[in-house]
């Protein structure tokens, strides 16, 4: 079974955190950490007292603009003029 959640007022499908994480190629733990750090769009609703829900359009838009982390900058090791390394 593959149930979906539909907003009664708008007819829009809504995604759970697991669905959002899967779409964004993140682990559920990473998604939760992003949520705690306010790095993702705010949920549009909550069901069953604790399951947050998002609009897919909001998540798609966010995912297009997100940065997967800062690039790693590797500095060239300077050679010492004393020992050649």
From TrEMBL:
Name of the protein described by the UniProt record: Transcriptional regulator, AlpA family
Domain of life where this protein originates: Bacteria
Species this chain originates from: Corynebacterium kutscheri
């Amino acid at each position: 079974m593959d149930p979906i959640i539909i907003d009664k007022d708008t007819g829009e499908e809504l995604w759970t955190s697991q669905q959002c994480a899967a779409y964004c190629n993140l682990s559920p733990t990473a998604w939760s950490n992003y949520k705690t750090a306010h790095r993702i769009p705010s949920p549009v609703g909550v069901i069953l007292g604790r399951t947050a829900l998002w609009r897919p359009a909001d998540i798609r838009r966010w995912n297009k603009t997100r940065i997967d982390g800062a690039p790693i900058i590797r500095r060239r090791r300077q050679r010492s003029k004393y020992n050649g390394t």
